[in-house]
Amino acid sequence: MVNASPSFSAPHLRQAVLEPLRTAHALEKARLTIALDAKLPVNRHLLVPDPGDIPGRPAKPELVAHTSLKSKPLTSPEGRAVLLHAIAHIELNAIDLALDVVWRFSGMPENFYTDWVQIAKEEAKHFLLLQGHLSEMGFDYGDFPAHHSLWEMAERTKGDILARIGLVPRTLEARGLDASPVVKNKLVSAGDHAAGRILDIILEEEIGHVAAGNRWYRYLCDERQLDPISTYRQLIQQYDAPKLKSPYNLAARRLAGFNEEELENLSASGL
Has residue 66 got a pLDDT over 90? Predict the structure, then answer.
């Protein structure tokens, strides 16, 4: 039986996202997100009260420190399932991260909110593709432990939209662009071509998500009369964001809107 949050009337888009965001059941969260009506009025200046139960979390998986997670050889179905489960967990968190931006931060242009609702829908699609593949392999989301560091960054940046946009899509999600080719090659080499096709879909759409992060980060920097590069360095230090490591998927990062100066800084210092 689905343990979803009670439904409620939401006449505005920024209120409507609270239902999937607060829903604990992972599959139901994804389905409710895909069903969001992006044509609802945005009400961009509305201050939405915090319901206090964000985000809704399923009883499983057990959440542990990322250093406690252990991989298994990809030569076994369980080893591949552990890796795919980790990616599915990232995608489920990405749903919450996108929806959280919509209700939490008021006063942005209307297309900011519709951008992030579309992103949340695509993250939900990614989760369902991965969960479907896990199910075909005889596993389910929740079968293995997962880490909680993604939402920790959401908590740290909840007081400043510039920090949230700078450090979630442009940093954490951009790491996914770097990792995707390596992970795909490992899975395909182990014989899981279906997983490879799913990762191709995810990479193509994640480029668009990071591009939205870049676009809105620069919008906010312009609005506050800040230099994007020096501000980003300050945000990394202030919020103790993870230091990025090579190899970098420079082609995907260029498609996602990182400029050459940013890529040079990345290669030189991990920033």
Answer: no
- The β-bridge relationship of strands 146-147 and 63-64 is parallel
Put residue 10 in one of left, alpha, beta given phi > 0 → left and psi -120 to 50 → alpha. beta
Domain 13-42+52-269 has CATH 3.30.420: no
pLDDT reading at 3 higher than 60: no
pLDDT band per the 50, 70, 90 thresholds, residue 192: very high
Q: Bridge-partner residues for 146, per DSSP?
A: 63
Strand partners, 147: 64
Give CA angle at 108 (105, 110), nearest 5°: 115
Joined together, the tokens standing for residue 195 give 């997983």
Q: By three-state DSSP, how is residue 63 classified?
A: strand
Give the pLDDT score at 268: 67
Cβ atoms of residues 42 and 106 within 8 Å: no
